[in-house]
Amino acid sequence: MRDWTNRSARRRLLCAASAVLALSTSTALAQAMPFKIDAQPAAAGIRQFARQAGVQILVQSDAAQGRRTAPVRGALPVDRALEQLLAGTGLTVVSNDGKTIILAPPRTGLIRTGWSGGGGALAAAPEPAPPPSPPKPEEPSVMEELIVTGTRSTSRTVTESMAPIDVISAAELTKSGKQSTRDLISSLVPSANTSNSGAGASFAIKTVSLRGLSADQTLVLVDGKRRHNTAILFVNGTTQNGQSPPDLDLIPSAAIERIEVLRDGASAQYGSDALAGVINVILKKSPEGGSMSALYGKTAEGDGETGQFSGNIGLKLGESGYLNLTGDVRITDPTDRGDLTPNTTQMYFPRNALGQPVRVGTAGSTPDPREATANRHTSHPGSPQVQLFSLGYSAGSPITDDIDLYSFGTFSSRNTAAWLTYRNPNASNNITAVNPDGYTPRLFLKDRDFQVAVGAKGSNLLGFDWDLSSTFSRDAVDYYENSLNASLGPASPTYFYIGALNFQEWTSNLDLTREVDTGLFAAPMFVAGGLEYRDDKFEIVAGEPASYVNGGYVAPAGSPQAGVVFAGGSQGVTGFPPFSAGAFSRDNVSAYLNVEQKVTDKLEFALAGRFEHYSDFGNAKTFKLSSRYAILPRLAIRGTASTGFRAPSLQQQHYASSSTIGVIVPPATTTQLYPVQLLPPDNPAAIALGAKPLRPEKSVNYSVGLVAQPISRMNVTLDVYQIKIDNRILQSGTLGPNAAVSNALASQGLNPQQAAFYYGNFADTKTRGVDFVVDYRTDIGDFGSVRWTLSANHTKNEFTRVVQPPAALAAAGIVYIDRVKIGDLTVGTPKDKFILGADWTLGKFDTNLRLTRYGEVIQRSTLPANDEVVSPKLIVDLDLSYAATENITVSVGANNLLDAYPDSVRAANRGTPAFAYYNQYSPYGISGGFYYARVAARF
User: Does the chain have fewer CB atoms within 10 Å around its N or its C terminus?
Assistant: First the structure.
């Protein structure tokens, strides 16, 4: 591994490490302990030594690979036993404080732990901090995986940082039946939640959010480089409405070394979107070895059958380079909980005395005989069908003594199918000649996605270490649907190409870092700066004409549908019409500066500032101040104050579509299927309803926390935060149907018999919360060791300002943000979340148990009497593993072991005909328990 540290700083740190080592002859180290360790691969030998010695050992993964430790037997002091263990490995002790031992190859230096500023890579702690106690070996920007033997994973909470961060290790990625990286983050990070509600494309793709904010208010990085957003805009996604966040599912999980989650605003460091925090996915870079795994599972109901196979291999490039390759295949069948909501409506047209179909309610008519034998299982709520193929690579090689080239990329192909809402045979959106028994539209998404980054990094550029990179990415989603365009009559096709959405992003960065020794403070000043250029493009491709036209079909006289006005376009999701198609682009340039200074041994500060210019809305300036003060050796206080921004996405500015969803149409008090038109803010119909050009969201974020190590092997953090967001971009409530909406739509040649909504800067919000994390390891002798984690989050969202429509629109019944939209943000996700985890290791056995308690969730309706409550629930996840051989591990486990389900939905909110029985606002879904078996092999 190349060492890009400042050479003088490296020498000082190595001297300090040597001094620490010289002073580490404590009584604890001198005391003889019994050891019984055979010669074996280094990773296993070091892990076994750590358990028997009762210490924590950190070593870089690639440093341990290909090496073997020597046998250690008998009663020996820890330091002498460690010397015997490492004989012949080439590994040396860099630091040893009696509790944690750092190992590294002779040429590996030490650097400060910290998040590099601006567009730079994200390291293991959210702010550059003084060398922790003990320091951790890592590269200046991207830290290689740390194998933490004894606890067998990196510490979940980095106590030396200036802001709260969670680190999810490679080991934790494999101790779960979660096939999705997104779901794994939600299950391990207390302030992270996944949305499971929605319709249309929102069924197929889920999002993860931090600290009660939207998913697109969290920035996602891969190896420190910005990850592109999905092309899809969630329109009917309830709590995720209006979002186009990065899709974490399209990063192959087997390629991930670890995930770092910064729970703090970071726009000044990384730019737009980092209002709630940053998720950084670090890819594997090992030049040798590899792994394979296969998983099979299904739900307690027998559906949702899932098969997943993944493989990873590391290869050497030349003498010092590496190429790490990953492939992942996952096939998941849908789950279906529609048997609990039988269709109780009158499905067929009644018959007259001659047996001919007539209108519903015709005097003297009798029910169609098919009513008695009809299949009433017409709804199919649950998880979608998914076929996902993904590839990933990471490569790097030195080209001179001072310059390394590197590259990484991901390539994914995903096909998803989701059921929409059933249309009765006697409905006005059905043609009985085509579908005599009605039909359920089925939406198909074909997603093709890639990201490729290429860069070079080196040192000695006018005294600076530098990193120059360019990242190109694209997400292309084609929409298809099994459905019907009733306005085309019996000639309507039943399969449609709806259109496509494409999003493309090209980002280039130059990052510079160096240390400046002023001689005034306890450590040199760390300075980082850089430039970024980003070009975004969004495209809407029109569907085939049959998917959006109104054919004007008129049912013949005598038909029970005679005189019915049939809606145009395919049912479910209507095709993108030519007026909404087009290509849209923008670019932005930014510059940042980040300065960090350790003033004394106890006090440090960091200051970051960023300027950005967007071609479509202008300038943005953000700042961040961070500090940490060590009150006692094992107790510190930390805090941050920052401003942030999120640029309106191109999707929010330009997307237009039409769909059929459940709407309460007065005087009715229950939902019914009704067409709804999403208007872009610059559409004249939207302007007539009060729309204005979108402005960026702006935030002010405060965080104060305590970090403590009250006893050996225990880390405790408590962080309190407040995030105020002005000009928050929200999807309006459903506007209409009423005369004002009909007139606005008709003026643009759109179907006036629709409701409408659009995106606007509709509100200011305030989010307050607290995060609590405890990490502790217990050694229980012959019964192994247990690593305990207890984490909790409480978050409260409130609206401090809601934009009101002009008087004329208000008089017409227009309300931009209704109680449903307010409820989605304030009570639509759990305010409280508690996670208790226990990872028990005993010889070849490993048991990972996780208990998660979700707080209450409320699904608001337009009518308060119809509000729904999802009661608090305890979800139990269990993974049992056995090391059958040194390289093969078999596991069985369960996600939601007790097969828990959320509360049922009252009949008034199930739709007509009924769709969902279980409440889809549930943060743990409606499919119940998932049970699996897994085999993993290392080589």
Answer: C
